[in-house]
């Protein structure tokens, strides 16, 4: 059963997390003398092992997210395993989506991209079990991990450890949001980073300072794919995308942020764009995804300028 706690301040929670990390508590999901690696029910973020749940979740305390109507609630992977499963689906050759059923946390999906040099896990879902690990091993395993932004960090350390402590690529501008520290997390700086299989990470900023997208040039039969997370966000009408500072709290991005995102994406060639949510236009913009992004950005700028 999920555990409830009263909402506390961001500062107090950060102090708790720092203390836990300094104490050298081991990682994992099974309960032992060190306690459990608790998972926030609202956003899916997992924290270092502790005897009792943290007082608050800084991700949910932030203005881009929210604390649930029942207050702060916690669970563990061990508690979730009897009730949840991951559904793995081929989206196109070399690309598989990973959806948790029933919905948990924010409800995003993750992706496995297959390359001759090794597979990349793009974004992360909180739930992980042996069946998921075995299924992905059958598809070639996970060589490296990259996550678009902090809302999807969830149990990324569990995923890394399940696949031989695979490197996790996070932009350094979002380093403060990695709330379960681990040596498998590698921070990068700058605007572009090449990773396995000819894929690239591009830091666009916007929703978070270190928000990153993944460019897969070989996707869509060589016409290119953009793995966008939730920026640009696929709309219910997949002929449109949008941009927000906070999606649940309806806080828009400002004009300079939109222009910066468009400028970062301008050099890329992509026919398709995959988003984080399959219920929004089936989570896919195709064909002419790049034109859709640029047209939608122009529309957005006209709307906020009046």
Task: Provide a descriptive summary of the structure in words.
The chain has two domains: 78 residues, no CATH class; 221 residues, Metallo-beta-lactamase, Chain A (4-Layer Sandwich), CATH 3.60.15.10. The strands form five sheets. A seven-stranded mixed beta sheet has the order 4-5-6-7-8-9-10, with helices on one face. It has a six-stranded mixed beta sheet with strand order 11-12-13-14-19-20. Strands 1-3-2 form a three-stranded antiparallel beta sheet. Strand 11 and strand 12 form a beta hairpin. It is of the alpha+beta class. It contains eight helices and 20 strands. Helix 7 packs antiparallel against helix 8. It is globular and about 50 Å long.
What's this model, at a glance?
It contains 8 helices and 20 strands. The chain has 306 residues and is an alpha+beta fold.
What topology does this entry show?
Elements: E1 3-5, H1 10-22, E2 39-40, H2 58-61, E3 72-75, H3 77-80, E4 85-92, E5 95-101, E6 110-113, E7 120-122, H4 130-138, E8 144-146, H5 156-162, E9 167-171, E10 185-188, E11 192-194, E12 200-203, E13 212-216, H6 219-222, E14 225-229, E15 233-234, E16 241-242, E17 244-246, E18 251-252, H7 255-265, E19 272-275, E20 284-285, H8 289-305
Parallel strand pairs: 7-8, 8-9, 9-10, 14-19
Antiparallel strand pairs: 1-3, 2-3, 4-5, 5-6, 6-7, 11-12, 12-13, 13-14, 15-16, 17-18, 19-20
Helix pairs in contact: 7-8
């Amino acid at each position: 059963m999920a555990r409830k706690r009263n909402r506390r301040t961001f500062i107090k929670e950060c102090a708790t997390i720092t203390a836990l990390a300094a104490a050298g508590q081991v990682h994992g999901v099974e309960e032992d003398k060190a306690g459990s690696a608790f998972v926030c029910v609202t956003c899916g973020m997992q924290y270092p092992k502790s005897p009792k749940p943290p007082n608050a979740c800084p991700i949910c305390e932030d203005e881009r997210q929210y604390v649930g109507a029942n207050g702060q609630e916690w669970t563990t992977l061990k508690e979730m395993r009897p009730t949840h499963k991951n559904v793995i689906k081929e989206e196109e050759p070399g690309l598989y989506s990973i959806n948790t059923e029933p919905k948990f946390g924010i409800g995003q999906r993750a992706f496995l991209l297959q390359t001759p040099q090794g597979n990349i896990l793009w974004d992360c879902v909180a739930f992980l079990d042996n069946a998921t690990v075995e299924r992905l091993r059958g598809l070639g395993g996970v060589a490296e991990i990259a996550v678009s932004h902090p809302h999807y960090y969830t149990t990324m350390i569990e995923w890394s450890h399940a696949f031989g402590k695979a490197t996790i690529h996070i932009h350094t501008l979002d380093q403060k949001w990695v709330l379960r520290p681990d040596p498998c997390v590698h921070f990068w700086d700058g605007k572009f980073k090449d990773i396995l299989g000819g894929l690239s990470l591009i830091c666009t900023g916007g929703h978070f300072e270190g928000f990153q997208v993944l460019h897969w040039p070989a996707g869509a039969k060589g016409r290119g794919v953009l793995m966008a997370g939730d920026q640009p966000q696929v709309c219910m009408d997949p002929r449109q995308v949008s941009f927000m500072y906070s999606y649940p709290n309806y806080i828009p991005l400002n004009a300079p942020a939109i222009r910066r995102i468009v400028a970062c994406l301008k050099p890329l060639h992509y026919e398709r764009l995959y988003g984080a949510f399959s219920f929004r236009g089936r989570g896919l913009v195709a064909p002419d995804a790049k034109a859709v992004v640029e047209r939608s950005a122009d529309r957005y700028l006209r709307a906020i300028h009046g």
